[in-house]
């Protein structure tokens, strides 16, 4: 099975350094002296100049550079999209769905978003604060007082953890792969029980384990925290997490391509969607991982921490809830109140927001702060940057979970940011 804890923590650290280093510098540019801007008088255009097929020298130059980066970093398939309000100003797919196959990735392909899923879980928790008794300061011991049976009691140190500490990776929970020496993680990877029952078992085990540090004293990227948050949403709404995401996020926003786990599971031999890839730790070769292969994703119970797949178009619909133009504010109101989103995107004092994103200060092209998130399930890597005040989102999806994909996606993000002139 996939174990993305180490990869996610590494990605978290890499993105952290990236934000305060080269990326932060690049995002301060409106355009490079030697490069033409990607966005230029967008509001005055009647048609999109940068679509999938190159029609101008600028497009050809950018696409050629992206293809060079894709090859340099050994990325099998790549999608790069820049969204302005509710339409793409750049959307390109390059490469193949799976190494060893000729099927090219397409603009409507579904990509594994991995830890981007955490942002959706945070939205569900926000909705619970609007519609149930849950609050940002609700404590684990209060929320689960009738849910965790006495035979599997909460660890004493877990009871005082707050919702905000879980959201901001400051809860100190044991990594889900280490609970009971890894036995619980192995035991919940099964298909003969309802996913919500398996998630309850996993949440119980996490909360019954000793903490790795006192809540609120440190920050450590935590999948366990978002598994617990997903279960909190289930308890608050009395509905499985998967159904909540479908009914409260996908359906209102028209995200029809989205689902859970690897995309394209109906295909055995021919990739109908991008398949994941990773380096073999022994040979060093890049392996293709078909969606039905053992370990093609984390166990289903892991869902709230990172199992959603989506097309780039539908992912853009979700990211639009962060935009601050008038039409997008009405769009966000379909699922969340402004004051709730304001809390979730606020700084938690540790470089993180309360919805598993990182925030960097105002950049001229963004007209304000930029929020960045990354997802990595060891076989797929995604990177997104959102500029709410400029109503711009940049998304980069790959079907490769190696370090090369992380570095390549960050190079692409720097390239795009350097060309944005608003």
Can you describe what's shown?
The protein is α+β, with helices and mostly antiparallel strands. It folds into two domains: 5-107 and 262-296 and 357-419, no CATH class; 120-239, Beta-lactamase (3-Layer(aba) Sandwich). Helices cover 36% and strands 15% of the residues. It has 15 helices and eleven strands. It has helices at 5-20, 22-27, 57-72, 117-131, 140-143, 163-167, 183-187, 195-207, 223-237, 241-253, 303-306, 312-319, 326-332, 338-344, 403-419; strands spanning 77-84, 87-95, 110-112, 259-260, 276-279, 286-289, 308-311, 358-363, 368-376, 381-387, 392-398. The chain has a six-stranded antiparallel sheet with strand order 2-1-11-10-9-8, sandwiched between helices. It has a three-stranded antiparallel sheet with strand order 3-7-4. Strand 1 and strand 2 form a beta hairpin. Helix 4 (117-131) packs parallel to helix 9 (223-237), helix 4 packs across helix 10 and helix 8 packs across helix 9 (223-237). The longest helix is centred in the C-terminal third of the chain and has 17 residues, at 403-419. It starts with a helix and ends with a helix. The model is unreliable at 16-55 (pLDDT under 50).
Chain-wise SSE layout:
Layout: H1 5-20, H2 22-27, H3 57-72, E1 77-84, E2 87-95, E3 110-112, H4 117-131, H5 140-143, H6 163-167, H7 183-187, H8 195-207, H9 223-237, H10 241-253, E4 259-260, E5 276-279, E6 286-289, H11 303-306, E7 308-311, H12 312-319, H13 326-332, H14 338-344, E8 358-363, E9 368-376, E10 381-387, E11 392-398, H15 403-419
Antiparallel strand pairs: 1-2, 1-11, 3-7, 4-7, 5-6, 8-9, 9-10, 10-11
Helix pairs in contact: 4-9, 4-10, 8-9
